[in-house]
Amino acid sequence: MTQYIHDIAGAPVIIGAGLAGLMTALHLAPQPVTLLSRTPLGTEASTTLAQGGLAASLGEDDSPDLHLTDTLAAGDGLCNEQIARRVVEAVPESISHLMRLGAPFDRSLDGKLRLGLEAAHSRRRIVHAAGDATGHELFRALLAVARRTRSITIMEGITALHLVVAEGSVVGVLAALNSSVFGLPTRRVVLATGGIGGLFRDTTNPLSSFGHGLALAACAGAELADLEFVQFHPTALDTPLRPMPLVSEAVRGEGAVLVDERGHRFLVGVPGAELAARDVVARAICDQLAAGHRVFLDARQCLGQKFAKRFPAIDAACKQAGIDPALEVIPVRPAAHYHMGGVAVDAEGRSSVSGLWACGEVACTGLHGANRLASNSLAEAVATSAWVAASVAGTCAGWQWPRLPAVVPLRPDPSPIRQVVSNALGIIRNDKELRHAVSTLLPIAVSETAAADPALVGLLIAIAALRREESRGSHYRSDFPGRDGAALPSRLTLCTAFENAVALSWQACERSSW
Length: 514
Prior knowledge:
Elements (H helix, E strand, L loop, with lengths): L2 E3 L7 E3 L3 H10 L4 E5 L8 H4 L4 E2 L8 H11 L6 H20 L14 E2 L9 E2 L6 H15 L3 E5 L2 E8 L2 E9 L2 E6 L3 E3 L20 H8 L4 E2 L4 E8 L11 H5 L3 E4 L17 H13 L4 E4 L8 H4 L1 H9 L9 E10 L2 E3 L11 E3 L4 E2 L11 H18 L24 H7 L6 H15 L6 H16 L23 E2 L1 H19 L2
Parallel strand pairs: 1-10, 2-3, 2-11, 3-7, 11-18, 17-19
Antiparallel strand pairs: 4-6, 5-6, 8-9, 9-10, 12-17, 12-20, 13-16, 14-15, 15-16
């Protein structure tokens, strides 16, 4: 591959063009910015698949304090309360800003924003667009504005391969377009690359979402936080299609119930029942599946013929699978959905590496703690993108020509390691499976293969999961089912992770020789 330098005059580079990336670029205008998208815009972005809306305290019976209380409860003791308060207080104005940009939020007959209810929320506070197509509608509106904004250069079909670092600071991005490899000289990079669901067999995320930003950040030396916390959405449509269509929590918010093949409602005795925290509902469904049952969502009584109007995208997905949700129960199972962990950032989105920021799902701000409250993800992206943009804009734009690496990484492919990750890092974890994952993923992570970066991310998560010897939020260990009252947020670097992985591999070798 031929390598060359593409001169962007030191403009900030945003890697990822979903909601977080687009919002950051728009907030930076009129300052020039380069936005990289691995695929044609919108074709493989988690944002466009998001059915849930944005959580905001807009109701007359609601307040930021109540939203904060629900957020902290879902986070199970690991939220950064200061950050969480700042986000919930900022989201109402962020929604107003989105409306000024053309976001078509749903309204009731009186013209007010329609507010939905989702799990673990004490009030109706979820703002949607086009019923269950919120992400798609937001993306469409923001992309239209971005394409009209002359300061934003959008580069589609570009894969970011490596962050070039010199003396502890980012100095460029190594990227690829088809067979050409080029460097973008910049001292300001924003990661907005989304989540990790593509590491798992069952996921609602694009299959390419394997934690690309985490791998880039880790190899640049950035500190990562809370990687062990992976949220599994309880109700993905149980068909062979991958990624799995999501059956939004809002359906349960309208009164749909979970039943087994006999029609037995198995969550009746659980506090909150179908609207309990996602980890609780996901584990309950997992137990039913493990016992040989099938699980269905029954919306016939609460919605019936109104289902198609209220949830048109879900209705279409069900009918494509031969299911009429107005007349039939919907088969569901949990699927990897959202990653609470990510690049450790401060209140302005800055990582531990100079010149590197992170925004959206790839970042760990401390808002979500051990378990994300429903619809707080899009809310976090729109609120924090403004703070990230202000920080980037206020940073010196000086730059230098980067020295490009001699070895060019291959474009990542997570498919070879999905089985290992799914077995070890699913809803219920244990020491044996996690150690096996570490020993299997380590040699792949240090190889020069297409699976190296995905294996690296899986390895980092497995090490974090092994280190947390308790069950909390979305992280459940069958060998450590109790909760450690003194447990703290976890931090990890690539160096620490490799040291742990090598030590565990040596232990495995010694045991096998006994």
